Amino acid sequence: MKTILQSKRAVPGKAPLTVTSFLQWKHAQKLTRGAGAQLLLSLPHGAVNFAVLEFVRRQMNNLVSQSRYADTINRNFGPGMDFLSSALSTVCCSVVSTPQMMICDNIMAGTYPNLITATTELMKDKGIAGFYTGWWPGIAGKIPSYGLTWTLFEQIKRVRSSMFKRPAKDIENSIMGCMASATTVCIMIPMDTVKTRLVTQMNYPDMVAYKGINDCFRRVLKEEGVGAFYRGLTPRLLSVVPMIGIQFGVYESMKKFMLARDIKTSIEPSRGWGTSKTTMKMRAEEAAIEKGRRDRRLQEMAMEVAADD
CB 102: neighbour CB atoms within 10 A? Predict the structure, then answer.
């Protein structure tokens, strides 16, 4: 629904599509377009995504561990390193994700009827480059999107902590995740609309093509008004907000579980008649470092899922 609403260009004399338009069968039957292609292509994309993420993270950890300031970097710049590694993996994975986006968005928009036709026509019209038409707008929307979602989540957590002197419950973390993702969607939806317009403009061969992100943004604003950027907002919110809310709730719950396990396995065995205070302190510090590493790994995975829409 989001892709159909965003890709539909204004035609003089015709009312634009809205969410309520899909109550009519002629529009409702379009909602299944691209489902098979999306399912089929998401499997290799997901595998490549996490494989690349793990490789980039490992290489960055190896690089940092060789520095004499490794502990300081991990302690003070851990979240920034996670953001950077996720950003790099997103760029690398765009080799797979961009063709997937081009094929699926164009099937959903009605440019092509199925996966085989979409692949064949894109290759025939522009060659390999045709599969990467939406690379830059896709990257320009994804990386700021998950970074902003995570930043807002952390800020909302701080505000809540200043109001309530107790740890947040899982349901509260989910609600805060929903608030952060909803805000991000509302801010980033114009860029998502521009991306969809650029990717699916082959569906309108009789209209003047957009030359790029800036040209698309200016023309949509001038020809259709601000509202055109937000036509896909409702279905976007309905699909993304619950997903991110559940994701952050599970993330925070796993952090608590792993922290409790670390305390049980690392602190309790340290207590005994033959254990010195120095040894206990060293083991506690090692447990804290390991806990930080696991927290950052969970955070990195959460950020990567938030980026993948």
Answer: 24
Whole-angstrom distance, CA of residue 71 vs CA of residue 65: 8
Distance CA 289, CA 269 (A): 17
In the block, residue with structure tokens 């083991």: 283
**Reported pTM:** 0.71
Residue with tokens 């829409």: 309
List the one residue out of 215, 185, 9, 224 whose CA is nearest residue 111. Answer: 9
CB atoms within 10 A of CB 49: 21
Q: Counting beta carbons within 10 angstroms of the beta carbon of residue 71, is it exposed (0 to 12), middle (13 to 18) or buried (19 or more)?
A: middle
Q: What letter would DSSP give residue 207?
A: S
Unique residue bearing structure tokens 């601000």: 226
Q: What angle do CA 23, 27, 28 make, to 5 degrees?
A: 60
DSSP 76-123: HHHHHHHHHHHHHHHHHHHHHHHHHHHHHHHHHHTSSSSHHHHHHHHH
Q: What is the pLDDT of residues 20-29, one digit of tens each?
A: 888 888 888 8
pLDDT tens digits along 245-298: 887 777 777 767 766 665 555 544 444 444 455 655 666 666 666 556 655 555
Q: Which two tokens stand for residue 204?
A: 């309108």
Q: Is 66 helix (H, G, I), strand (E, B) or coil?
A: coil
Q: Which DSSP category does 164 fall into? A: -
Q: Which of 151, 147, 149 is nearest to 181 (CA)?
A: 149
Dig out the tokens for 119 from the structure.
């692949």
In the structure encoding, which two tokens stand for residue 79, read together? 């979240």
Q: What distance in Å separates the CA atoms of residue 106 and residue 115, rounded to the nearest whole number?
A: 10
Q: Which of 40-54, 95-109, 191-205, 212-226 has the lowest mean pLDDT?
A: 40-54
Residue with tokens 């539909």, as numbered in its chain: 8
Instruction: Read off the DSSP letter of residue 276.
Output: -
The 8-class DSSP code of residue 17 comes to P
